[in-house]
Design goal:
The structure holds two protein chains of two kinds. Chain A is built from no helices and eleven strands. Chain A is an all-beta fold. In chain A, a hairpin with a 2-residue loop joins strand 6 and strand 7. The radius of gyration of chain A is 13 Å and the shape is globular. In chain B, the strands form two sheets. In chain B, strands 2, 4, 5, 6, 9, 10 and 11 form a seven-stranded mixed β-sheet that branches. In chain B, strands 1-3-8-7 form a four-stranded antiparallel β-sheet, with no helix packed on it. The radius of gyration of chain B is 13 Å and the shape is globular. Chain B starts with a strand and ends with a strand. The chains are: A mainly beta, B mainly beta.
Chain lengths: 111, 114
């Protein structure tokens, strides 16, 4: 099946640091989505991207849809304790009717 | 709106027992999905539905069956549970494709098979 390679798998940072994570694929996607999952909860949508090159922000979060349509990144600026969780990228191939998810990036923040 | 709800939240089964997980959404979404989440594996698609009365296989369908008799409900069945089916199960829904493919997730069902 289709694969999304998400990196890094885990991050341990200090409060206030910036965070960057990315997803790559060998396939072309027409949509990229970024989700956050907190312990005991379902994933919650953070940002949705629909056009190659698109750069979208949601507060301290910024995500970009890669020009090649095969990658996307998510940045978090000035991290705070509530940013802790697992971040997933997801992509849709045109007409596929379903999403492919990355393996997740587990973010841990030391206060 | 309650969004996407799942019943039950926790369940323990013995090997060979059967059970049905219920997913309900009140957003009038066409598409619904069942995923399982295992440590380090991310979310893997089990089955999905693109409308009432339709179902399709996902990445890991073996050992599961689904039904979508009503638009708002999507049922996931385990006919004969196995320890390998111990996992957290998530249901999701969305309006459709393209700009309508933003999936909304339920809170999950934690299943243990002994």
């Amino acid at each position: 099946g289709q694969q999304l390679n998400q990196s890094p798998q885990s991050m341990f940072i200090q409060e206030g640091e910036d965070v960057s994570m990315n997803c790559t694929s060998s396939s072309i996607f027409n949509t990229w989505l970024w989700y956050k999952q907190e312990p005991g909860e379902g994933p919650v949508l953070l940002i949705a991207l629909y056009k190659a090159g698109e750069l979208t922000s949601n507060g301290r979060l910024t995500a970009q849809f890669g020009i090649t349509r095969k990658d996307s990144f998510l940045n978090i600026s000035a991290s705070i304790p509530s940013d802790v969780g697992i971040y997933f990228c997801a992509g849709e191939i045109q007409g596929a009717q379903k999403l492919v998810f990355g393996q997740g990036t587990r973010l841990t923040i030391n206060p | 709106n309650a969004g996407v709800t799942q019943t039950p939240k926790f369940r323990v089964l013995k090997t060979g027992q059967s059970m049905t997980l219920l997913c309900a959404q009140d957003m009038n979404h066409e598409y619904m999905y069942w995923y399982r989440q295992d440590p380090g594996m991310g979310l893997r698609l089990i089955h999905y539905s693109v409308g009432e009365g339709t179902t399709a296989k996902g990445e890991v369908p073996d050992g599961y069956n689904v039904s979508r008799l009503k638009k708002q409900n999507f049922l996931l069945g385990l006919e004969s549970a196995a320890p390998s089916q111990t996992s957290v199960y998530f249901c999701a829904s969305n309006e459709g494709q393209g700009r309508y493919n933003e999936q909304f997730f339920g809170p999950g069902t934690r299943l243990t098979v002994l």
